Amino acid sequence: MASEKICSILLFSAVILLLRDAPSVLAGDIVHDDDSTPKKPGCANQFVLVKVQTWVNGVEDAEFVGVGARFGRAIVSKEKNARHTRLILSDPRDCCSPPKNKLVGDVIMVDRGNCTFTRKANTAQNANASAILIINNQKELYKMVCDPDETDLNIHIPAVMLPLDAGTRLEKMLTSTSSVSVQLYSPRRPSVDIAEVFLWMMAVLTILCASYWSAWTARESAIEQDKLLKDASDEIPNTKYASVNGVVNMNVKAAVLFVVFASCFLFMLYKLMSSWFIEVLVVLFCIGGIEGLQTCLVALLSRWFKHAGEAYIKVPFLGSISYLTLAVSPFCTTFAVLWAVYRNNSFAWICQDILGIALIITVLQIVHVPNLKVGTVLIGCAFIYDIFWVFVSKKFFKESVMIVVARGDRSGEDGIPMLLKFPRIFDPWGGYSIIGFGDILLPGMLVAFSLRYDWLANKSLRGGYFLWAMCAYGFGLLITYVALNLMDGHGQPALLYIVPFTLGTLMTLGQKRGDLKGLWTSGEPQKPCPHLRLQHSGELSLE
């Protein structure tokens, strides 16, 4: 049973490495790419999301989200300054020629196609419309820009594009009721997102808990092997604490293959992204979450129910399982299944975060970086992986593969489940801020290694490496959020900032204190030679 659990955790940890996106944003955001579209006088607006609130026969109804055009009048940001205006359907529908409808400051709804966006807007403006809603022919939002050779850009009414499904609902409202009015406004996001503060705290506390659990286990193993060394007379046991059951040490080859496998899986996910593939990932997440939550609960409860944790029973197909594991398994399974069923509800993010944190802690407990060399190769490769799939992939695929996968743009879902998320409570647009598991897991392996080294070397908190590695990780993640806000929501690869701070801090301190060689090679303090034996005569001899 233990070996099966280790295999499943290792497989899942390789899968979640692909989720390397930085803390980003979901639910209603558009990908800003202002520099790639032409700007000129009369066509220089920033792309903004626009709320389209509807009223049917004077009663407030559905709200839709569109995107403002590069051209036209800027849309007001405050709801109280936005007027309620009657909505009419254009005739002809494309609005490429003057509409037959008589407009008196109304908002006109038109279909995309047959002529340029600016021609539609000019036609609507000349017909005395106060704004134009252009319905896309797809479910996605499209950024409306000006052609490079256009000169007729004297447009003074707002232009907003809505997705196809919103247009279908609005058309149904217009054909089935006597009066439909709309209100257009684009509220600004707060400069500081409180959700990012909570995500930062969750990431730091997760690594903190996992590091202490890992170091405590390593120290207990070291103490136990020291006892074996004193008692053994014929056989010398292996002195590496990480060789105990339940812990797997990563080597350089595994670290490289880990990242290569993640790249292949990410590319496959990008190509096969669909609703059914998201369902597969949901199942995988549930399996990993059950294992992680079960491991954490058993470790926690075994302090109060020690006998139940040490007594085992044989279960068909599963082997020997402790009574405590048997007791918590139904709860963990039910918890994960309920999340999967209700994962689209507003409260589901809490369950997702609990499962995710438990899984990350369990992986950090099982998979160890044995020395700084392996840790450097691992997060160094992940650093390159991050930059390539977030930035460089745009050159080959015309879009950021990492961000497309994390957002679930082609799946019809809210994105992949292997993320910690927190609702943007004070953001008028709602949605979630997110952070990928890998941005916690991989640096966490290095931070946990530093605490194991400190405890085995009996170093104080300030005189060791863990405190400074932990601070470096927290500061690197903080810089990531600052960059995310400064760059107007562009997805940021967190390891771009975390790796230099965390790895640079450990190497600099190690070099300054003279411990770098030991950290790089053995990864643990020097110990007396295990071949030194006490002979029956009481004399010391070296075998």
From TrEMBL:
GO terms for cellular component: cytoplasmic side of endoplasmic reticulum membrane; endosome membrane; Golgi-associated vesicle membrane; lumenal side of endoplasmic reticulum membrane; lysosomal membrane. The chain crosses the membrane at residues 197-215, 250-270, 276-301, 321-341, 347-367, 374-392, 429-453, 465-484, 490-509. It is found in: Endosome membrane. One of its GO terms (molecular function) is aspartic endopeptidase activity, intramembrane cleaving. The keyword Repeat does not apply. InterPro entries: PA_dom_sf, PA_domain, Peptidase_A22B_SPP, Preselin/SPP. Residues 92-170 form the PA domain. Residues 1-27 form the signal peptide. The keyword Membrane applies. Keywords: Endosome, Glycoprotein, Hydrolase, Membrane, Protease, Signal, Transmembrane, Transmembrane helix. One of its GO terms (biological process) is membrane protein proteolysis. SUPFAM superfamilies: PA domain (SSF52025). It is a multi-pass membrane protein. Belongs to the peptidase A22B family. Intramembrane-cleaving aspartic protease (I-CLiP) that cleaves type II membrane signal peptides in the hydrophobic plane of the membrane. This is PA domain-containing protein. The lineage of its organism: Eukaryota, Viridiplantae, Streptophyta, Embryophyta, Tracheophyta.
